[in-house]
Structures are given as structure tokens and as C-alpha cells.
Design goal:
InterPro entries: Elp3/MiaA/NifB-like_rSAM, MJ0683-like, rSAM, rSAM_sf. The chain is an alpha/beta fold and 358 residues long. Helix content is 33%, strand content 13%.
């Protein structure tokens, strides 16, 4: 049966993950069950929060084409529902769908701050470049109630540990009281993801994320508070948000952004069929053009996972896109290099409840 969009969700189905051992097929039993199931699937599923006590909170980066060493993700899954999210396939490891489950079954690591404090207090720990929100948005809606991200930031600030945050949520403004003093020491920076200035496109591309103007306002408020802030124009999708590259950079620079970076669309594992289904639902008139251009930039394939090329693409169209980005960024005075990370101010914390001698 043809899929229809679900209001407020990026995916239209809880598609099976790649480790699924059982295949299911709908069968008409003569009682109108298929029609009834189709109607039920169109009802917006409610978000479920699954509490988890994590064994560890710091993840090490082993990828040579990524500029940070450690990451913190207080949540698994993300209610923003961005259809292009490269982290969707990680829900497969939980025996959950990278489709609707990724958006509706959010795992909250309720002991994140506790585990972080323990990790930083370990004598074996050496401070390194750290980013919050690499495989989830640390400021997705549930953060307003749980405050797991803020609790982690409090630990990092107390230890004078440098960090960066990547988000597309204006909710980060809540933590300016922590971020601004830390930034004054040269220990904090933020990157806001602005994928499009078109409200209609943003609403279906990133259904529960902040509106474009609200993200620009967050850039402005962070900048005015003295927090170094950059803009991520990622992912760039040919013929959808790609025509907006220059306008997004201009708007971000006007709001106070001082740096910028960009990554072309990636379609790893289950993201590929999910994205192509989304294309057919929302842009059937240009779906083939979009995918043809994606393949032009990915060596003829839907996705290229090779280090070095996966974050940049390859070929004529990828290079032209990067040239446009570089030219616009240079014209606006936006840095493309990451700020050097100051690790010298780190103060090792003591584990809560233990004396300094231990």
C-alpha cells in the first residue's frame, strides 16, 4: 500500500531494521483489516521515554575524518525526526526501527552526569576535544523536563573541561548561564544547524525541530552573550536546500555566527530507503533528479562510506558545491577551521561522595 505522511513525524513507517530475522507481510482477511491498519498507522504515534542507566557516557571517536576525540550523547534517538539523520541506523542495535521508533522511542541515560563525573575523575583520563550531541540532539524536547544535558554541562564546567555543542534547538538558550562564563575562559563553542530558511521545507524535513528564524535568533543570543557560535549547513541536499547555501550563510553571519561548515547528504544503511520514501512522498516531481545528483557525488552509488570522501563527496558536482560554500564563507568572513582546544585548564573532579584522598 502506498505510504502517507504522518503529521509531526519524518518517517511514515516503522520499517524493519537490518538485523531483523522475521519478515512480515500484510494479508487481506476479508474483514477490512488492511484498511483499518492503514488508518491506525496514519495516527501520529506518541513519544515514549525509555530510562536507561548507562554503563558509560563518553564515546571515543575512531574516525580519522572527524575533528573531535570524545562525544557525549545523553539520549538515543531523537524526536526532531530529521529524515536524513545519519544516526537512525543506531536504533537497529536496540532491536528498534530506524524509522518511526527512532523518533518515538527515546532512550534517556538518566545517570549521564554521574557517569561523566566518574570518567573525568579517573586517574587514567586525559582531557581531549569533546562534542555534545553527535548522534542525537542533546536539546530535543524531552531535555526540557529531564535536564540530562544541563547536568553534564555542569560537570564539564566545574572541571573546566573544553567542549562544543551541535544542535538545531533554540533550547540551548536555557543554559547560557553556564555556557557564557565557560566561553569567557575559551572553553566552549556552539554550532547551530540551519538546514533551510524555508519554513515549509524545514517543517517536513525536520518536523519537530525549531523553526529556521528561531535558530537564527539562538545564534544571535549566543553571540551576544559572548559564546563563539558557528553554523552548520548540513546536510546539503541537491535541488532541495542546496540552492540556499549562500542565503543561509548570509543570514547566519548577520545573526552573529563566526564560523561555518557543511556536509553533503549521507545515506548510510536504513537512512537510504527512508529518505527515498520521503522524497517520493513530498517531492515526487524531482525525486529522480535528487538521487541522480547524489549518486554523481558518491561515485555512482547512493552512499559512500569511505573515510575521506564520506564527509565531502567527490566529483564535479561535489567540488562545485564546496567552491560555492568556500566563496560565500570567505566573503562573509566566516572561519572554516575549528578553534584550537585549550586542555590546560582541566581540573580533575573528585567522585561524588568520596574524599579527595581517593
Amino acid at each position: 500500500m502506498p505510504l502517507a505522511s504522518i503529521k509531526g513525524r519524518g518517517s511514515a513507517t516503522a520499517m524493519p531494521h537490518r538485523f531483523e530475522r522475521v519478515e512480515r507481510e500484510q494479508v487481506d482477511d476479508g474483514w477490512g483489516t488492511l484498511d483499518q491498519d492503514a488508518q491506525n498507522e496514519r495516527l501520529a504515534p506518541q513519544t515514549q521515554i525509555i530510562e536507561e542507566r548507562a554503563g558509560r557516557i563518553l564515546s571515543s571517536n575512531q574516525s580519522p575524518d572527524i575533528s573531535f576525540d570524545l562525544s557525549i550523547n545523553p539520549y538515543r534517538g531523537c524526536e526532531h525526526g530529521c529524515i536524513y539523520c545519519f544516526a537512525r541506523p543506531t536504533h537497529s542495535y536496540l532491536n528498534l526501527s530506524p524509522g518511526l521508533d527512532f523518533e518515538t522511542h527515546i532512550v534517556a541515560k538518566v545517570n549521564a552526569a554521574e557517569r561523566l563525573r566518574e570518567a573525568l575523575a579517573s586517574r587514567a583520563y586525559e582531557p581531549a576535544a569533546l562534542v555534545i550531541g553527535t548522534a542525537t540532539d542533546a536539546y530535543q524536547p524531552i531535555e526540557r523536563q529531564l535536564g540530562l544535558t544541563r547536568a553534564c554541562i555542569e560537570v564539564l564546567v566545574a572541571a573546566r573541561h573544553p567542549f562544543s555543542i551541535v544542535t538545531k534547538s533554540a533550547g540551548i538558550e536555557r543554559d547560557l548561564d553556564l555556557l557564557a562564563p565557560h566561553a569567557a575562559r575559551g572553553l566552549c563553542s556552539v554550532y547551530l544547524s540551519v538546514t533551510s530558511l524555508d519554513n515549509d521545507l524545514s517543517r517536513i524535513l525536520e518536523p519537530r525541530a525549531a523553526a529556521p528564524e528561531r535558530r537564527l535568533q539562538a545564534i544571535r543570543r549566543l553571540s551576544e552573550a559572548g559564546v563563539p557560535v558557528g553554523v552548520s549547513v548540513s546536510p546539503v541536499i541537491p535541488f532541495l536546500n542546496e540552492p540556499e547555501i549562500e542565503r543561509i550563510l548570509e543570514a547566519a553571519a548577520a545573526a552573529g555566527a563566526g564560523s561555518a561548515f557543511s556536509i553533503p547528504l549521507r545515506l548510510p544503511w536504513e537512512v537510504n530507503p527512508l529518505f527515498q520514501d520521503w522524497l517520493q512522498r513530498h517531492f515526487p516531481d524531482r525525486a529522480e533528479r535528487v538521487m541522480a545528483r547524489v549518486r554523481d557525488m558518491r561515485g555512482g552509488k547512493d552512499n559512500d562510506a569511505r573515510f575521506g570522501s564520506r564527509m565531502r563527496g567527490e566529483g564535479l558536482w561535489a567540488e562545485l558545491m564546496h567552491q560555492r560554500f568556500r566563496r560565500a564563507a570567505n566573503k562573509l568572513g566566516l572561519r572554516r577551521e575549528r578553534r584550537p582546544v585549550d586542555l590546560s585548564q582541566f581540573v580533575r573532579p573528585s567522585v561524588q561522595g568520596q574524599g579527595a584522598l581517593f
